[in-house]
Write a structure and sequence with these properties.
The protein is an alpha/beta fold and 632 residues long. Helix content is 50%, strand content 12%. The strands form 6 sheets. The protein has a 5-stranded parallel beta sheet, sandwiched between helices. Strands 3-2-1-7 form a 4-stranded mixed beta sheet. It starts with a strand and ends in a 13-residue tail after the last helix.
């Protein structure tokens, strides 16, 4: 089956066109194809079909459109209901957008390697797939959401094709087409520089300088800016007659495809300048900032003694293989960051164009601004500091534009909520994201697989202790090792601290450490070494709650109940059951309480993990009077 969106949306089965009914059915098909196997929620499909004012019958109409698509496309496509939306698995069907991106990426790589004949052929094949503007017969809502990035990808491929053709001495053939493109895109500096280069090599120096002047006026009038440094460099080299000539291909060398291959690249790049964020080959060698020409590899190493979590690791890797992003969530100290890095390490080879990483928590525990993180990422992607967009929205647009042509893995560690994460998500394409965080708001991120972490299994906890301390010391006292694990609530962070303390004190036995951890009043103090402290993550989670929830956290802990209901909490806090339940849920969302249900009883139960309960009591000492929550 052939699926096409680079022009009118269409499908062909065994060479015969599949009947599609109007713009809305074509929109539904295109939206599912562009999701690349991710679930598209009903809410998003409805917005793409009708905007923000859908008819009352939109749910039934959406079902009809999808049902007809399933019937007409046949069993070869896996179009199915999945949770609150629909998901399409195209299997081995041909999708022109995917084919285009593959050819464009390979062509760009050939261009960067100086294999100009290969690059020209591959990019020519990519551009030939376009049958007009992409998504020409879908609703305006989908076109507005997706067409701009697709057109950006086409123009980038066109610029790369032009760069390869200029290197091969095809400047005369390029002038008519480039003239038209510059007219259509007057502020696109790379195209303008390529036209200036072609004109100069055709002996038309005056025309090349006139093209520069037209561009300077357009940039000033439309954007209020001057030409960038790369375009100014081309202008200066034309003025002085020093612009590099084309590098003719050698006819006695062929690529594996049997086409002529050029000789070594010229000493100066024959490419026209790049726009902001897409450095030229010259910028890759001489630009400031230190990242030009490098493949970003920003991931910290996963812990070398990582232990357990086999099922969770498989779940995360499976989600990435299924073109889903991953959200790792759990209580403080459950090892979310370690698991994310473990998953990233296992799939690093699947993202050959690099990996980006950011800790979204500042040194004082607060949330880091997305604009700051975007600045890091854009510099890693080759944007020189002086070309970084000033506003966060512009940084988001440039970031997604650059990632649309790459296959990269992005790890966002210690996220506070979904609003912090959304600007850092790629806008589609082959890149994937792994996010870690405590709060439930991360569950609202679309198209993600939630991987939830809790305490380790007893055997895993013992194995982690042994991996750090060494199996010999624990083998002498297995019961003491089991006690240590339970005093640590079998949480990876606490276990790691306990094991590190034991390793740092070779004269201690496991029994001695267990005895030191046994008194509740000193346990949290024992679980601290160097920069590692069990209290730190709990403090961050607590700081993100309002005063009422923080007060309830301490008051409820002192009740000492093994299970709390909303009624219990209401009596303790002096408030109504509904309000008490809301407070309990907020604490559970912050992973400071565990919640569970009992068969046959509609009431939810809540409880403190022992270490969390000890921390809660520290926040609200019993000897300090506190007004009831209703009066707080």
């Amino acid at each position: 089956m052939d699926l096409k969106i680079l022009g009118p949306v269409s499908a062909e089965l065994d060479g015969r066109a599949v009947a599609l009914d109007g713009s809305k059915q074509r929109t539904a098909l295109a939206a599912l194809l562009l999701a690349h196997g991710k679930v598209v929620p009903d809410e998003r499909l409805t917005a793409l079909l009708w905007g923000w004012d859908p008819p009352a019958t939109s749910t039934n109409q959406l079902y009809t459109y999808v049902s007809r698509l399933r019937t007409r496309l046949g069993a070869g496509l896996g179009l199915e209901r999945h949770g609150p939306g629909y998901r399409m698995d195209i299997g081995d069907a041909r999708f022109d957008w995917d084919t285009f991106r593959g050819l464009a990426d390979t062509g760009r790589a050939a261009l960067r390697a100086g294999r100009y004949a290969d690059a020209e052929r591959l990019l020519d094949d990519a551009l030939a797939l376009w049958r007009g503007p992409a998504l020409t017969d879908v609703t305006e809502y989908l076109a507005e959401a997706e067409a701009p990035r697709m057109e950006e990808a086409r123009l980038s491929a066109l610029e790369n094709h032009t760069e390869a053709a200029l290197a091969l001495g095809r400047h005369t053939d390029l002038v008519p087409g480039l003239t038209r493109q510059v007219t259509l895109h007057p502020v696109r500096e790379r195209l303008r520089g390529q036209l200036m280069t072609a004109l100069f090599r055709c002996g038309r120096q005056a025309d090349a300088l006139a093209v520069y002047e037209e561009g300077r006026r357009a940039l000033a009038e439309d954007l209020g800016i001057d030409p960038g440094p790369a375009l100014r460099t081309v202008h200066q080299e034309i003025l002085t007659g020093t612009l590099a000539s084309a590098q003719a291909p050698e006819r006695d060398r062929t690529t594996s495809a049997g086409r002529p291959s050029p000789a070594a690249a010229p000493t100066q790049p024959c490419a026209a300048p790049a726009t902001a964020g897409t450095p030229s080959r010259q910028g890759a060698e001489t630009g400031s900032g230190g990242w030009q020409g490098l493949v970003p590899a920003m991931l910290p190493a996963a812990p070398g003694d990582f232990t357990g979590r086999a099922a969770e690791t498989r779940e995360g890797l499976g989600a990435l293989r299924d073109h889903q992003d991953v959200v790792v969530t759990g209580a403080p100290g459950t090892g979310k960051s370690a698991l994310a890095l473990r998953v990233a390490e296992h799939c690093r080879a699947g993202f050959p164009e690099g990996q980006l990483y950011a800790d979204l928590r500042t040194a004082d525990g607060g949330p880091r601004a997305p604009g700051e993180v975007l600045g890091w990422f854009l510099r890693a992607l080759g944007v020189v500091p002086e070309q970084l967009p000033a506003t966060p929205d512009e940084r988001v647009q440039l970031y997604r534009t650059l990632l649309a042509r790459r296959r990269m893995l992005i790890v966002l560690d210690n996220a506070s909520d979904d609003t912090q994460v959304r600007p850092l998500l790629p806008g589609g394409g082959g890149s994937r994201t792994v996010v870690t965080g405590v709060g439930s708001p991360l569950a609202s991120l679309e198209g993600t697989r939630l991987v939830r972490l809790g305490p380790m299994e007893p055997a895993e906890a013992s194995a982690l202790l042994a991996a750090i301390v060494g199996p010999g010391r624990l083998a002498e006292a297995p019961e003491a090792a089991a006690r240590i694990a339970e005093f640590c609530d079998r949480l990876p962070l606490a276990l790691r601290i306990a094991a590190a303390r034991l390793a740092a004190h070779p004269h201690w036995s496991a029994t001695r450490l267990a005895d030191r951890l046994a008194p509740e009043g000193r346990r949290l103090g024992e679980l601290r070494i160097g920069s590692l402290d069990v209290r730190t993550g709990l403090s961050v989670a607590l700081s993100q709650l309002d005063r009422r929830a923080r007060s309830a956290f301490g008051l409820l802990a002192w009740a000492g109940l093994s299970a709390l209901t909303a009624g219990d909490a209401a009596a303790l806090l002096g408030t109504e059951p509904d309000e008490a339940e809301e407070l309990l849920e907020r604490l559970a969302d912050a992973r400071l309480l565990e919640a569970w249900s009992v068969a046959g009883d509609a009431r939810l139960r809540y409880r403190f993990m022992p270490l969390v309960g000890l921390f809660a009591k520290e926040q609200h000492p019993a000897s300090v009077p506190e007004p009831t929550l209703a009066a707080a």
